């Protein structure tokens, strides 16, 4: 786990041998277990990689996202033996692999939902605060959150207490007041898949 968490820190090595090795390590498996099994293996490993890399302090740091997207793209190309110059988005859509930037946002927003409903991990504390207008305004009843101001735009804006409410307030109203975590996840996945593959 420690290795996976630290893997994101090498954002300046998006084309390093470690990324190629991650994908190439499966090359000998496809002949013996079949393409479907390799696809399943990639799905599991990429989900684990993104889960640990994108749930900690870097959140949506550009380098970390670029690195993991390279791994995802390379894995998809390998599974179907497509050429590098061919467009990868239709392949990701056919695999139901959410692009990394959306997967990162998904993780943050799920934690935000849990925090608002007091089911988040204890280490998050109580970082989110609902926006409560003092009088009847258009924002009333829209489930908006207060976005704290930060002195450091780059690092401060990536803090969970800032990033989570900013992303939350961008969600359509049909998603924010979901009655359960399961419903919230389903609506959020649908929203992000439409944005990633149909916009």
From TrEMBL:
The protein in question is named Uncharacterized protein
In its UniProt entry, the species of origin is given as: Nothobranchius pienaari
Q: Which gene holds the coding sequence for this protein?
A: Nfu_g_1_009238
